[in-house]
Specification:
Radius of gyration: 23 Å
Largest sheet: none
Number of domains: 1
Shape: globular
Number of strands: 0
Structural class: mainly alpha
Number of helices: 24
Distance between the termini: 36 Å
Helix content: 55-70%
């Protein structure tokens, strides 16, 4: 095996720009992340409801598309991009509204083909030219923190909103699952327990899995979750490739018209703006992992991430148009993988790439087997809700950690609030002027008005520089 550990360098790979890493050669399968992925396998299937209703795709074809989309996530971690990739989730309501302006049937599918391929081309152009790398490199810290805060607020608001199923329909089981997961993942006491008790370290290595299992069992006993049914109706899911290609792709439907391509341009730009925030979150999480585990250097390249995301969108757009589109990162899954890596020793998890790839091997393989999916399907909202909780917690603490002064904190707070509140309105009836666009504009205005070109803000509470330096002497090394 070419797996190296504890050397402070990048993990070995094969190839050039696209750094191929092969299981059992460049990384080992981490069974804990594999199991976490298998548990979460039911979550992506939630998009099939929109695919059948909006696009008229048969459920068997929709499930096959979800499975193929999941296997394509492996392109990222297999070729040198540390992203736990996902959808461009925030824009799903916008995509649905756009598609319903077309006649149901082939026209609606062609409209989605045009939208997804254009999104892929935007990623490709920005990735190949390096423009995206330049923009992100010079993106202000306060605005980065604002996007992180907005992502965190949006996740937590969704969890605790009474109309959502998490606390609304399963308050007992979900609360227990959430409390246990937070204790295992983030408690300082849990960190000491990991070092003191081997059995606790083993349980904690499974991340959200222990909390999920306990919450599931409590839900079954309390009646909040219905028992699984139809577990052994089938063994392998249906694989209607022929139907998918001839009824829902360019193979059978042909190319979209010129007017469809033109109509999709503005929404494709909006989709990229939404995805831009995910890229900043990904960069922050990987930076956090590099600080927590200096034994391995994880390289995040924005152009590489863009190129692989473009390949997924263009391929799927032509051959299996996917209503949620393909995004650069799934923050909930990214948080799970990064958190386990951060708290593991090099002996427990030799390389980041083992966990990052294993979560999708587990999720993708589990989705092929009907009994496994049916077993976890009744508790899919617990799994989904736990990822939202963890995503919210990590985004918020990273946002606060990256700000250096009160001006940056203030700009980040305003921008994060606009991003969340703006999701409920569309100025001038145009989807482009929703939360992300408004947040970027207001954040930029505040940055140039309050921060750009100004001197460093004085410490909180008028503490002078000499006292601040004395305080820093007593900080732990890792906090400096």
């Amino acid at each position: 095996m070419a797996i190296e550990q504890g050397n402070g360098r990048e993990q070995p790979y094969t190839g050039g720009i696209l750094k191929l890493r092969i299981p059992f050669v460049h990384y080992r399968i981490e069974y804990q992340d594999f199991i976490q992925g298998a548990i979460l396998s039911c979550v992506p299937l939630g998009i099939t409801a929109a695919m059948t209703k909006v696009l008229g795709i048969p459920i068997e074809v929709a499930v096959l598309m979800v499975v193929l989309n999941n296997f394509l996530y492996l392109l990222h971690t297999s070729f040198g991009d540390p992203s736990i990739s996902g959808w461009i989730t925030a824009g799903i309501p916008l995509y649905i509204s756009y598609l319903t302006t077309f006649t149901a049937g082939p026209d609606r599918i062609k409209a989605l083909i045009a939208l997804q391929v254009l999104v892929g081309l935007i990623f490709l152009v920005l990735g190949v030219t390096g423009i995206s790398r330049y923009v992100i490199k010079h993106f202000p810290i306060s605005m980065r923190a604002g996007i992180l805060l907005g992502a965190g607020f949006a996740s937590l608001m969704r969890v605790f909103k009474p109309s959502q199923p998490f606390m609304g329909k399963m308050p007992i089981s979900f609360s227990i699952a959430g409390i246990l997961s937070f204790f295992v993942l983030f408690s300082g006491r849990a960190v000491s327990y990991r070092k003191k008790y081997g059995w606790f370290a083993w349980i904690a290595s499974f991340g959200i899995a222990p909390g999920f299992v306990v919450g599931y069992l409590v839900g079954l006993m309390s009646g909040e979750i219905k028992p699984p049914s139809g577990v052994f109706d089938h063994f392998i899911i249906a694989l209607p490739f022929n139907d998918m290609l001839h009824s829902f792709s360019i193979v059978g439907l042909g190319m979209p018209s010129a007017s469809m391509w033109a109509a999709a341009i503005s929404l494709a730009v909006v989709a990229y703006v939404l995805a831009f925030g995910d890229i900043l979150v990904l960069e922050a999480l990987i930076d956090d992992a590099n600080k927590a585990r200096p034994d391995e250097k994880i390289i995040f390249s924005v152009p590489r991430n863009h190129i692989i995301t473009s390949i997924r969108n263009i391929f799927e757009g032509f051959f299996m148009p996917f209503i949620s589109l393909c995004g650069p990162q799934w923050t909930g899954g990214q948080a799970l993988v990064v958190n386990r890596f951060n708290h593991a020793t090099p002996e427990q998890e030799p390389s980041y790439w083992g966990g990052a790839t294993s979560i999708f091997w587990g999720m993708s393989i589990a989705m092929v087997f009907h009994p496994l999916v049916q077993l976890v399907l009744p508790a899919k909202m617990i799994g989904f809700g736990l990822t939202l909780l963890i995503q919210g917690y990590l985004c918020i603490y990273l946002a606060f950690a990256m700000c250096h002064n009160n001006v940056q904190r203030g700009i980040a707070g305003v921008m994060g609030s606009v991003l969340v509140a703006g999701n409920y309105v569309k100025l001038w009836g145009n989807p482009f002027w929703s939360g992300p666009t408004m947040a970027l504009i207001i954040g930029a205005l505040l940055f140039f008005l309050l921060e750009f070109g100004s001197a460093e803000e004085e410490p909180i509470g008028n503490i002078d520089k000499e006292i601040e330096e004395e305080i820093k002497k007593f900080e732990p090394e890792e906090d400096k």
